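subagent[fold] <- orchestrator: predict structure for attached chain, return tokens only, no commentary.
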Amino acid sequence: MIDRDDIRAAAARIEGYVRVTPVMELERGAFGTDASITLKLELQQVTGSFKPRGAFNRVLSAEKIPEAGLITASGGNHGQAVAYVGQRLGYRAEIFVPESSPPVKAERMRRNGAVVNVAGEFYDDSYDLMLEKAAETGALLVHAYDQPETVMGQGTLGMELAGQAPDLDTVLVAVGGGGVIAGVAAWYRGDAKVVSVEPESIPTLAAALEAGRPVEVEVGGYAADSLGARRVGDIPFSVAREFVQESVLVTDDAIRHARFTLWDSLRVLTEPGGAAAMAAIVSGAYRPTPGERVGVLVCGGNTTEFPG
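subagent[fold] -> orchestrator:
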């Protein structure tokens, strides 16, 4: 089990390589609730998402980097992070991305010097092809969500948020493969209620919690490029079943509306997955109690498409 000492060590390791991202405290009554809402604007992280936290920690934790460098599969945001880590630390990076990944994400990986292979329909298809290449080359696998070092790095987000907004009752986190919610939940450890938010079309954690183990789900829908894992990771699941207190699902229309609302009200431009946690608030899938202090993770902003 990942603990706070692991996360503190990760924070010290990656300091200077990632940003301390801001929080935004909203006015009472925002988005039609009687709650106190604080947004954690992780879309302002380097590369536009939380992913560099875990990627830097994984690479900086390694005893030795192979000559073949770094390799990963990604729906887009993690690949951008690994490309950035490779460029920053001077290592070759090779990324496998699915056909469903927006071209802008692959282009940003290439701009950071990564070799990009577009292969497979969804993330898991790309992951299988990546494993074959990793076995051939011996490159260091930097997993998007199912490695201890990755989860520890993502946990620095929870540590940071707890310092910026120390009195939160609840934290809402979008889930794909589960790395960031595992890291956040491993930090809070019940001190605040951690709630997972997933699209109805990709309920990886909800299905796993119901089954008592990770299971495969169908992948599709509006946020599939960033939340499109078929199966929650084993490590994230082991943390989530201990420290994630509630799981809610949101529709694609709710995510679209949340993207529009964030832009229209706050001029915060997110990708679909980045607005998923807020979709739980604006759609009523999660209903705060009056006066509840709710933190909402806005986790990614890698898009060129304005919500309309």
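orchestrator: received. Logging for downstream: The first helix runs from residue 4 to 14. The two ends are 43 Å apart (CA to CA).
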